[in-house]
Fold each of these.
Amino acid sequence: MSIDRLSSLLERFRVRTTTFHTGPLCGVTTFAAQPGRGFLHVLRRGSMEITHRDAAGRLVHRRIDRPSLLLYPRPLEHSFRHAPTAESDFACAALDVEGGPTHPLVRTLPAVVVVPLDEVGSLGPSLDLLFAEVDAVACGGRVLVDRLFEVVLVQLFRWMLEHTADLALPPGLLPGLADERIARALVAVHERPGDPWTLASMAGEAHLSRSSFAARFKELVGQAPADYLTTWRLTVAQDRLRAGVSIARTAHDVGYATPAAFSRVFTQRLGCSPRAWLAASTDTPTTVPA
């Protein structure tokens, strides 16, 4: 596929990786759920059992017996049990996602994604650099390891995009982007959220009839095209409001005719007005230009 399906998305998916552990883990280690925070673990050597609770509150157990990447895209308390031996080796980073709960990529991924390292050959060079910096303990190493974790994360998304069928992902953004025609519409919406999109214009990007496009989009993405468009516009809007852009300008930039129309949709979806949302999302009082 000739189009870049990830760049416009990842530009809005701001994530800061912070390395907090390298080396063996002993005993039972629990990682707490914190708002906006995910985790990326790399099991370099050894084996373990991971546990977390599913949406119904049931305890889920899974045995990991080969070197693997473990991605927890959303806040979820999880534990590593049956402590690894001294020969085991980990590198763990926290993922602080800006606006994560509303981002369509984060929302639609499974609670945990486990990928054996030997199945992700494209990550080899980045992982080699990551582990070399972990082992070196050199000046600036912590900063470099954090950046390398970001590279590994982006490459993992790229690999997942090419292997959605193998991963048996539920309907969501990645399966949509894996489809050549639906991807063209998604990328256009990601790049130009303020365009006056209609079902017909989105279907035109995909070179499909309106009915065929709507059915295929819903099957792969799990949402109607109009619902996805609204979700993406509000994700972009939150990013712009955090950056200090006025409510009026934000409304215009994401395709709403008036600030009132934007505020109405924002309140319906997020439960509060843009002004109230911004006040609650900042640590210090902020004056929002109207």
Note: The chain has two domains: 7-167, 179-281.
Amino acid sequence: MDYILVFWALLATLFTWGLTALGAAVVFFFKDIRAIVLDSMLALASGVMIAASFWSLLLPGRDIALEIGQSPAVVLSLGFLTGAGFLILVNRLIPHLHFKDSVHSGRKSSLSRSVLLVLAITIHNIPEGLAIGVAFGSLAKGETLAGAVALAVGIGIQNIPEGSAVSVPLRREGLSRWKSFMVGQFSGLGEPVAAVIGAMLAVGVNGILPFALAFAAGCMIFVVVEELIPEAERVVVGKSRDLVSGFAIVGFVLMTVLDLAFS
């Protein structure tokens, strides 16, 4: 097994974890953030994730499938559906809170609000970490380092609002700045773990890479349609809704430019 690729994946997700912490650190400067700002940040994150799913996961997965003699239509469809199904199952089994309105999802639980918010972001970080890990693992099959780096940068950018989405509500409800920050940054811990697992599978299991890339894409798209877009547009109307939608488009373009610039 090419362990250096696993190490690179770990380093990349330590970087993205750091940006989660950067987002959580806004509580040192603000007790609250206007709803439209948080909505726009979440919409930007959704656009980044949609673009990353195509440019950095599905497209390379198709190329690798063709190269090793697999049917892209079959393998990518199966991987994508399996990834989405996995996140549906996780979403139903693990108790967590939606960001803005504290709606409880998953199994009933007596866990504290802060723990439930961390679990919500952890669910998001599973596909993000897997995506980065699999992308770095794909280097063993000839994919470019630049593409994996672009994916890590894009996911890191969208981790900033996710860190804020945990720490700001806790600060607003009276937690200290330090505790709010610690809970917010801790929510990114799952990303390096998932990245290491994804990278080890990608480089260690022969022929699994196209499926794994599509699996990560399915997970990411599920997070976008289940959580990010509904959360971003839950209360906005009129021109505000147009603004939020525009940020989603900007996020898609931003990730596209990153991918093409690094390729």
Note: DSSP finds nine helices and two strands in the chain.
Amino acid sequence: MKTEEVIKHAFDPYFNVPLEAWKSFVDLGEVIVTTKDQIIKDANKTEKYLSFILKGSGGILLWNNNNFVCIDLCYEGEFLGDYMSFLCKSSSPLEVITFEPSELFRISKANFDKLSNNTEIGDKICRFASEGLFIHKQKQQIDILTKTASERYFELQTRQPEIIRRTPQKYIASYLGITPQSLSRIRNEHALKH
């Protein structure tokens, strides 16, 4: 499947624009291949690209109290990056990393802005990408405040059945706000139920 088809497929549930529009979007970016544990954006630097995962996984980390805290887990069909830094064109303390060898489509801030400013379809694509990222973060915040770590893990497991194989357990535990030992207990409980 071509890059524009993969991205269109990921966005069709939210808004349906012609494949040609996604082709214009893809023509302004590039596909890169990463290694496992490759840092895509260093902490205290400015995010230069908005990346979309075609294949692989990654996370957004924050160094706190001599340890990385995982604030987001990202997989195929999702954006990966420090979106606040990207929009504001300023540095942030977030680090963006791949958890496994990955294939990413990325577009620079200058080309993202060019797309947004040049055509109505381009403006819609940029707006819906922004709205999608905002909705994802809001839902994540609501889930953190209203669901238990077990409930959130079961939802992650449903969406990403291979999560344990693909994502370091310390980052899953951190994302859930629990210790690796608590994650092991939750996984054992989940295994007993299934």
Note: Residues 147-194 form one domain.
